[in-house]
Design brief:
mainly alpha; 2 domains; 18 helices; globular
Length: 339
């Protein structure tokens, strides 16, 4: 009899443990019919030959359409491809980076992009379609950004600068360009789906300071963005979605109460001081007001916890309604947050 009770308790314990660790953001998107195709502009770009400049440029216009305009005006800032000097300028640009050996490195590093990274992007977009069925899925392009942009968006077009995801912290050009250690750590392929979905989230739901541009509004906005990323990428590691190291994530989790108490004690929740806001939400290697082993964007972390509590307490609220909600005080009140 005692043996049977012991077995029963073990089973209950296992079931309870499984229930506690179940991912609340995970949903079934297997029935969503969505296929994405990514065009690789950098492959055609590095084939450019000044002797056939008109043919290449005309092909770029036809094949890459709006993205080619975006590339010229926003990314490499060469202006109109109709300019009589455009071909010569593009030839100098391509030749310089070929001399640096960039094209060969990109070819090798992203040889399996369509098999390894593209499926993860597609899965993320299936989640996006689940939550926002009426929204348009952008056309996707990869490109060489000259180390300027990670992800760019314009209307129905989105581009990914793959040179910002080389995955090598000791890649010599990253040092040459001047990226810091914490930036280089995030420049890996695994960050591409995260950066894509974050960019779409910011485009669909831009920051709104209609009520007041204070610390509360900023941390709640960041919190909503992190909640959104969890919905779009439920099986992606939290370290990637937060751009944290494991130690930083552990620090933020352990010191959640400390972060919130500091904000409360200093009475800065409604501060409009840009410097103060930046300390808690701005990117960096850590949050300067704490220690150099702290997690960066500590305010965003408690903002996420507030938003998560709010959604847990108000299960009828959809993701879209959350993202559209502009009243940060309402979210804070509804969260009943008390770390």
């Amino acid at each position: 009899m005692k043996k049977n009770i012991l077995i029963f308790l073990i089973v209950i314990s296992i079931l309870t443990s499984c229930k506690q660790t179940e991912n609340p953001y995970k949903i079934d998107v297997s029935e969503i019919d969505l296929k994405i195709k990514i065009k690789h502009f950098e492959k055609d770009l590095f084939k450019f030959n000044i002797d056939s400049a008109d043919i290449y440029i005309d092909n770029y216009r036809k094949k890459y359409r709006e993205f080619f305009k975006l590339y010229n005006y926003q990314i490499i800032e060469m202006g109109s491809s109709e300019d009589p000097f455009y071909g010569k300028n593009l030839e100098m640009f391509v030749r310089y980076w070929k001399t640096e050996g960039l094209f060969d490195v990109l070819e090798k590093e992203f040889a399996n992009f369509d098999k390894e990274t593209a499926p993860k992007i597609e899965t993320a977009f299936k989640h996006y379609k689940y939550y926002f069925p009426e929204n348009y899925i952008p056309e996707l392009y990869t490109y060489f950004s000259s180390f300027g942009f990670s992800v760019v968006t314009l209307d129905s077009v989105m581009g990914v600068g793959i040179d910002k995801y080389m995955g090598k912290q000791n890649f010599y050009l990253y040092d040459k360009v001047g990226f810091s250690q914490y930036q280089k750590r995030r420049m890996i392929k695994e960050m591409i789906p995260v950066d894509i979905m974050r960019s779409i989230g910011e485009s669909d739901f831009p920051y709104n300071s209609e009520n007041a541009d204070n610390l509360l509004n900023n941390i709640i906005y960041e919190g909503k963005m992190q909640y959104y990323l969890n919905c779009m990428l439920p099986e992606t590691a939290d370290t990637l979605k937060w751009r944290y190291t494991k130690k930083q994530l552990l620090w933020a989790t352990k010191h959640e109460g400390k972060i919130w108490n500091y904000i409360a004690e200093k009475k800065i929740l409604f501060s409009t001081d840009k410097t103060e806001i930046r300390k808690f939400t701005g990117d960096g290697p850590y949050t300067a007001i704490f220690t150099d082993v702290s997690a960066p964007r500590a305010g965003a972390f408690v903002g996420f916890k507030i938003v998560e509590n709010y959604m847990r307490n108000n299960k009828q609220i959809t993701l879209n309604a959350l993202m559209e909600e502009k009243d940060a005080r309402k979210i804070l009140s509804g969260a009943k947050y008390n770390p």
